[in-house]
Amino acid sequence: MVIRLEGKVALITGAARGLGESIARLFAKHGARVVIADILDDLGKSVCEDMGLEVASFIHCDVSVESNIENAVNATVDKYGKLDVMVNNAGILDQPKSSIIDNDASDFERVIKVNVAGTSL
Q1: Do 93 and 18 touch, CB atoms closer than 8 A?
Q2: How far apart are CA 17 and CA 59, in angstroms?
Q3: Which of 41, 48, 91, 110 is deepest in the core (most CB within 10 A)?
Q4: What is the pLDDT of residues 23-40, one digit of tens each?
């Protein structure tokens, strides 16, 4: 197997489960050190422990809060001395409603803030 990411450092948002977790595991398999950034603290820490703390670390990060993203980037650079790859993977779904009338602007804004603005902050 070709080790494509040897010596690289990746920060991956939404990596405590699902697609983000799979990305983190694949990056580590290819030689990268990964920082799992997520709001699911227990799951994120568990994934890191399972992957091995020598290749994975966790930081709490809500991508809808710009200072959380800044903190995650700074913590990654402080720990590893650099940041080579950032995967903006975090995303959420709104709770299903039985009627369109039950939707309100704050729910919509929360989804947009994470899924659209969170990838560009």
Answers
A1: no
A2: 14
A3: 48
A4: 999 999 999 999 999 999
